[in-house]
Amino acid sequence: MNYKPLLTVILISLLVFLIWxxxxxxxxxxxxxxxxxxxxxxxHGLTALFLGGKFYYLEIYENGGGVxxxxxxxxxxxxxxxxxxxxAGGLFGPAISGALLIAAARNRTTARIALWILxxxxxxxxxIWIHDLLALVILSVFAAILFFIAILRVRNLEVFTVLFLGTxxxxxxYLQTGYLFTKQFQRNGKTLxxxxxxxxxxxxxxxxxxxxxILILTLLLLYKSYAYYLKKK
Length: 233
Description:
- This protein has about 230 residues and is mainly α.
- It has helices spanning about 5-20, 25-50, 80-105, 110-130, 135-150, 155-175, 175-180, 195-200, 205-230, and strands spanning about 55-60, 65-70, 185, 190-195.
C-alpha cells in the first residue's frame, strides 16, 4: 500500500491546524483569513449571478470581515429561495471550493488545471469585483504566488498548494463557527443579520439549525474529498 498520499494529508492537515493555533504564525494567519473572506464573499456574489441576479462588487475589511453587494431581482427562482441560496452561497463557497481543490489534487493534470482556474478567478475578481485597496493588495499577492507556482510546473509543489488551499478553505468554515451561530451583529453602528439568520428569514428553521446543518455538510465535504484523493488509483 502506498502511504505517501495519506502522509501528505496528515501533514497538510497538521500544518493548517498549527498555523491557526500557534501565535508564531500570525503573519500567515492574517492573509489566509482575508483569503477565506474572499472565498466567502465570492460565494455570495457568484451564487447571485448563477441564479440570474447581479454581482456588483465586494469589500474586505481589516478585521477579516467583508460584504458582497449583489441582487437577486430578476432571478429565475422565487425571490425568497434566491435570497436564501445567495446567503448560503457565502457559507458553502469556501467548503465547496476547498473540496474541489482537494479532489483535483489526486491527479497531476487536474491539480494543474485547478491551480490555473483558481488563478483565473482571482484575476477576474481583481478586474471586476474588487475595489478596496486592502483586497486588491492581498489578492494580487496571492495571484502572483499562484502564478509563480503554476509556471514552475513542479508537480509536488502544485499538489501541495492545491491540497493546502483546499484544506484551508474547508476548515475556514469552522474558524467562523461563532459567526455561524450568531443571529445578528453590529457594523458601523448598524444592526445586521448574519447569513444563517438571513437563510432562516426566507426558509423554514432557525439560524442555529442552519448553522448545524452547514457544519455537518462541510465536514462531509471534507471527508468525501479526502476519501476521493486517497482512493487507490
